[in-house]
Structure formats: structure tokens, C-alpha cells
Write a structure and sequence with these properties.
heterodimer; A: mainly alpha; 4 helices; 62% helix; 0% strand; B: mainly alpha; 9 helices
Chain lengths: 69, 177
């Protein structure tokens, strides 16, 4: 099979793409993507660490926490 | 490729000016979309890759050398984003997508079309991109090399490897010229 023959088969099965345009305005999506995403604040981290520590020290409190969640 | 935007616009973009960023987006979005669509061949996926491309460009704006071509820099980012898309979508081009977005010409033997499409899907993304651009889209090797940020020799070598892999797979599927 020559490369030309293979190329011909490829182009027959997968024709070259026709130039087209996006179906919608993509700028709002780019803008959303570029905005900084909310991460964990120091308060969130401290709270999570505190809760984890308490649960390690008092595992029985897990059911109490689960009840309140 | 489009004319290069003005140095002032690029300078403001590098400094993080969102108005300049939007101007560049409006100037280049269609060109980037068309380039990416050639690679991923699915309009919805191409839109996602365009968004990812401009996001990466904005995030990496400090690394842009304003003495060089903005269009070429953006095309490199777009090609990498398209390549990442092909890597993450494990099946890559699905037959259904291909028939919906870029239909095979009338009169093609469906069995051969299916075999070639299946063989093509087995190519690793790195070879698939080069084979698409060089063999199907017939883009110049220098243009592909610039988009992938590799030497022309590397593109030639990848085309060779893609052709060899396709031949092997087609033989396995029982397709003879």
C-alpha cells in the first residue's frame, strides 16, 4: 500500500474539515474560566483541622457531628 | 494566519488588561476554532478547547514574548490543548461524531470507511494529530512543526510512524488496497 493510496483512503473515510465558526459567543465562558476560583480560606482549613483533631480525640462525637450535619 | 495585532494591544494583554484580552479573543477566536476543529473534528469539543486555549494564554501571558508572533504562540497553545483533549477522551474520534460533523463522501464503501476510521482511532494522540494535519488536512509540514513546537524532521518522522501503524492496523482488519 503506497502512502498516496493510504492518504486517499484516509481522506475518503475522514474528509478534511470544512471551515466553520463557533455556534455561540465563547467569551463569557473564557471569562468564567479566567476568574479566580474560590479556594479554601485559612478559616476553612483551621475549622477542618480542629474538627478532625476533636474527632481523633473523641471518636464517639462522630455520631453527634453526623446528627448535626 | 491573521495579521499580527498591535504592540500596544499585546503589551496591555501581557500586563493583564482584560479589555485587551477580549480584543485579542475577538480577533483570533475563529482562526483558533477552525484550527482546533481540524484536529478534534467535533464542534462542541472544539469550543471547549478554544475556551481552554484562551484561558491558558491568559494564565501564561507573562511568558509571551511580544517580539514574536502572537498568532503562532496562540496556535501552539491551541494545538497542545487539542492534544490534551484527545488524550483525555480515551476513544478520541468516535465514528458517530465523525459521521455527524464531517461526513464521508457519497459513494464511499462503508466497510472501508469504517475500517479506516477504526484504524485511525488506534493511533496514539501524538501521531493522530500529525496524521490529521499532514495527511487529511494537507497542511504544510513547517506549519505543523511550528504548531507543535518541534522540528520539521520530527513531524516527518511522526507521519512515517503514523502511516506504518495505519498500514499494520488495516492489514489486521483485512483491508487491502
Amino acid at each position: 500500500m503506497t502512502e498516496d493510496r493510504l492518504q486517499q483512503m484516509l481522506k475518503s473515510a475522514l474528509p478534511p474539515a470544512v471551515d466553520r465558526e463557533p455556534s455561540r459567543d465563547l467569551w463569557p465562558l473564557v471569562l468564567n474560566r479566567a476568574e479566580p476560583r474560590a479556594g479554601w480560606s485559612w478559616l476553612d482549613v483551621s475549622l477542618a483541622a480542629g474538627v478532625t483533631l476533636v474527632l481523633i480525640m473523641f471518636p464517639g462525637w462522630l455520631s453527634l457531628l453526623a446528627y448535626h450535619l | 494566519m491573521l495579521d499580527e495585532p498591535g504592540g500596544d494591544l499585546l503589551e496591555r494583554f501581557v500586563q493583564g488588561d482584560q479589555v485587551a484580552f477580549e480584543s485579542l479573543f475577538r480577533l483570533f477566536q475563529i482562526e483558533v476554532f477552525q484550527w482546533v476543529f481540524r484536529i478534534v473534528r467535533d464542534a462542541s469539543a472544539a469550543e471547549d478547547v478554544v475556551v481552554e486555549t484562551f484561558w491558558r494564554a491568559y494564565r501564561g501571558r507573562a511568558r509571551f514574548d511580544s517580539s514574536r508572533s502572537f498568532g503562532a504562540w496562540l496556535r501552539r497553545i491551541a494545538t497542545n490543548a487539542a492534544l490534551d483533549h484527545l488524550r483525555t477522551t480515551r476513544r478520541g474520534w468516535r465514528t458517530g461524531q465523525m459521521s455527524r460533523e464531517v461526513p464521508a463522501p457519497a459513494g464511499s464503501d462503508p466497510a472501508i470507511v469504517d475500517a479506516v476510521a477504526r484504524a485511525f482511532r488506534t493511533l496514539p494522540p501524538r501521531l493522530k494529530v500529525v496524521a490529521t494535519l499532514a495527511l487529511i488536512e494537507e497542511r504544510p509540514l513547517a506549519e505543523i512543526a511550528e504548531a507543535l513546537d518541534v522540528p520539521v524532521g520530527t513531524v516527518k518522522s511522526r507521519v512515517f510512524r503514523a502511516v506504518r501503524a495505519l498500514r499494520t492496523e488495516l492489514r489486521r482488519l483485512g483491508v487491502r488496497p
